[in-house]
Write a structure and sequence with these properties.
The structure is a single chain. By secondary structure, the protein is an alpha+beta fold. The chain has two domains: about 160 residues, 2-Layer Sandwich (Beta-Lactamase), CATH 3.30.450.80; about 70 residues, Arc Repressor Mutant, subunit A (Orthogonal Bundle). Helix content is about 45%, strand content about 15%. The chain has ten helices and five strands, in the order ααββαβαββαααααα. The longest helix has 19 residues. It is globular and about 50 Å long. It starts with a helix and ends in a 5-residue tail after the last helix.
Length: about 250
């Protein structure tokens, strides 16, 4: 369901209208609170959209624990006061921030990175509910992959409409954590095919992928076509779904 909504939302040309549609769509699957937050590689110039007015009155957006602890991999992280014990590394100030969000009804949720540290900009979505841990695990956790793909697709459109600086996808210049995040099926691609497919799947336009790889747009299309054929998919949305599938 969420992917179909994303395909419709991607056609919008006004960022306020897009944000409104994103919030409404995520409400359908149970998220009461929606935050989109990115910063540059020096934790400066935050770009923030949020349904939680006043949340960042005491803590600057760039100090959000999501940015400091969750954006080293594309794994979706369970967050909120109901899951705080899973994150013993958070500082006292960060814990107080999470607890303050809890007083506004953010008890459980997902942190969904859409760009990783090492990119020109990184961050993603912070999604919250008022559910206790057991109920969240039962109702929302089964939707993890669908929510993740939706966020990845919407992130690309937000970047386009907000005119944010394009960020090369971290796996084009792998970090120590990057290789283990790829499903086994990607091993059948050549290094360039893999690079192009991942860039497109994570939201880059073909022009941006061409600039990052130092090749022409036509060559990007050729590599994408070959990569999709080897993966058994037909477009970037299907490649993104495969990229986030950990069953291989």
């Amino acid at each position: 369901m969420l992917v179909q909504h994303a395909e419709t939302l991607e056609k919008l040309t006004d960022i306020d209208e897009l944000w409104h549609g994103v919030v409404q769509t995520l409400e359908l699957v149970g998220f009461d609170h929606v935050i989109y937050l990115t910063v540059n590689d020096h934790f400066d110039t935050p770009f923030l959209r949020t349904t939680m007015d006043g949340l960042y009155d005491r803590l600057q957006p760039q100090d959000d624990p999501f940015l400091h602890h969750a954006c080293h991999s594309y794994a979706v992280v369970q967050i909120g006061t109901e899951f705080i014990q899973k994150h013993p590394h958070v500082t006292t100030a960060e814990r107080e921030f999470v607890e303050r969000a809890g007083t506004s009804g953010f008890l459980s949720g997902f942190g969904v990175p859409t760009r990783l540290k090492g990119s020109d900009r990184f961050g993603g979505f912070i999604l919250g509910t008022g559910l206790d841990r057991a109920t969240f695990t039962k109702r929302i956790t089964p939707l993890t992959e669908e929510v993740q793909l939706f966020c990845v697709l919407i992130h690309r459109r937000i970047e386009e409409l907000a005119a944010l600086p394009p960020s090369p996808y971290a796996l084009s210049q792998p970090s120590p954590d990057a290789p283990q995040t790829l499903p086994d099926r990607f091993e059948h691609l050549t290094p360039r095919e893999r690079e192009v497919v991942i860039l497109l799947a994570q939201g880059c336009s073909r022009k941006q992928a061409a600039e990052i790889c130092g090749i022409s747009v036509h060559t990007v299309s050729d590599y994408a076509k070959m990569g999709y054929r080897k993966l058994g998919v037909h477009n970037r949305a299907q490649a993104a779904a495969l990229l986030h599938d950990r069953s291989d």
